Amino acid sequence: MKKLILSLAVLVMATSVVAQDTKEDKAAAKAAAAALKAAKKEAKSQLDESLKIKDALYLRITERNNAADPKAIAASIKDEEIVAECKKGGALIKKALASGHIDERRLGEAYKISADLALPLHNIYLNNAVDKLPFDTLDFYDNLKVLTDGIHNELLNTKVTKGETGNEKYLGNQRTKLASCGDYYVYAAQFEKDCQRYDRALEAYDRAMSFTTMYPEVAADTKMRATPDQIAYYAFYCAHDAGNYAAMDKYYEQALKFEEGAVGTKQMKAQSYLERADTASWVQFVRGLCLENPKENEDYISILLGYYQKQGLDKMGAFADEVLGVAPELVIANYGKAHVLFQSEKYGEALKFYEKCTVQDPKYFDAWYQAGMCKFREALALNSTISNIKNRQQAQQALEKTKKIFGEAIPYFEKARECKPDDPSKWAYELRQCYSVTGQSAKAAEMDALM
C-alpha cells in the first residue's frame, strides 16, 4: 500500500513539472515572438526613416543642381549638410540590414536606399580629390564598399519588370553605374597606402583585382583603366612598403605579368629576401633569374660568382658552367670560368676564356691583363724548374722556352696598357719583367721610368 501511495506521489510530481515546463516554454515562445515582432518593427522604422532622409536629401540636391540665380545657389544645401544627412540615413539603413529583419519584399528597396545614400557622399569625396581639397580618405573606401555592395544586392533582390512602367531600364542604368566603380577601388587603395593603412590598401587592391568576380552581373561591361596585372604590381609594392612579405609572394606572379615593371618587380623580390635575412632563398631566386635570362642579369651573375667563390672554386666553376650553358658568349661568365681555372693554375685553359672575353669586349682591361698573367705565371712556373734540371742542354731549352712564353705575354699586357694608358701602376711592372727577360732593355727602361 505504501509503495502504491509513493508511486502516485511521483506521478503527480512529474505531471506538475511537465505542466510547469509547458507554461515556461509558452512564455519563452511568447517573449521570443514579441521580441521578433519588435525587431521587425524597429527594422521597418529604420528603413522608413532612412527612406525619408534619402528622399528629402535628393530633393534638396535636385534643387541645388537646378538653381540658376546666385541667391538660390547660396541658399541651397551645402556639401557639409549632404555628408551629414548621408551618414545619418546610412547609419539607419545599415542597422536595418544588419538586423536581418527586413521583409524580403522590401530587401531590394533597402539596398537601393543604402546605395542611394552612399552615392552623393562618394561624389563629394571624388570632387574634393580632383580639386585637391581635404576629404575623409578613410570613409571614402568604406563608403565605396557600401555603394557597390548596395547596387549589387539591389540587383539581386529586385525582380525585373518590363514595359513603360517597368524597372528594366532603371536596373540597366544601375548595372552601368556599378560597372564604372572598379577604378575607384584602385583610388581607394592608393588613398589608404598614402595614409600608411596598408592592410586596408591591400584589401582594396584585392577588391579591384577581383571586381568582376565579386560582381559578375557587370563582368562584361566593366572597363577598368588598370589591368589586373598592373593592379597586382601596385599591390606588390604596397606590400613591400608594409613589410608584408607574405603578401609580396602572393602578388608576385601576377605582378610579373605587368611587362613595364617586370624588371623592377624581380629586383624588388630579390631585395625582399635580403630584408628577410634569408640568404638561401635570395641565392636560389637570383640564380633562377640568371639562368632564365643571363644578359638581363649580368650584375646578379657577378654577385653570385663572388658568393660562390667564397663557397669554393668548385661551386664558382659549376655556376659559371651553368650560365655558359645558356649564354656561351656572356663576358662575365667567361671571366668567372677563367678565374676558376687561373686560380687552379690551369693557365692554358684559363687563357682561352680570357681571350673570349676580349673578343666580346676589346676594351676589357682585366681580361687582357689576366690573359697576360696566364703566360706570365706559366713562364714563372717553368723558370722555377730550371735550376733542378741537371742536363745543361735541357736546361738551356727550358730557359729559351721560358723567354718565349714571357714574350708571348707582352701583347696581352700591351693591350691592357692601351685600355688604361694613364695608369701604369696596373701594367708597367709586368711589362718591364717581360721586356727584361726577352732582352729588350730600352723598353724595360721605359717601363722603369713609368713606375
Written description of the protein model:
The protein is mainly α. About 80% of the residues lie in helices and about 0% in strands. The radius of gyration is 41 Å and the shape is elongated.
Q: Report the order of strands and helices.
A: HHHHHHHHHHHHHHHHHHHHH
Spans of at least 5 consecutive residues with low confidence: none
The computed structural class is: mainly alpha
User: What is the subunit arrangement here?
Assistant: single chain
Portion in strands: under 5%
How can the largest sheet be summarized? none
Average per-residue pLDDT, rounded, comes to: 93
* Outline: elongated
- Overall helicity: over 70%
User: What is the number of beta strands?
Assistant: 0
Rg from alpha-carbon coordinates: 41 Å
Distance between the termini: 135 Å
Number of continuous helical runs:
21
List the helices and strands and how they pair.
Layout: H1 2-66, H2 70-75, H3 79-99, H4 107-130, H5 137-156, H6 168-179, H7 182-194, H8 198-209, H9 211-214, H10 228-242, H11 245-256, H12 262-275, H13 279-292, H14 298-311, H15 313-326, H16 331-343, H17 347-360, H18 365-386, H19 392-419, H20 428-437, H21 441-450
Helix pairs in contact: 1-3, 1-4, 3-4, 4-5, 5-6, 5-7, 7-8, 8-10, 10-11, 11-12, 12-13, 13-14, 14-15, 15-16, 16-17, 17-18, 18-19, 19-20, 20-21
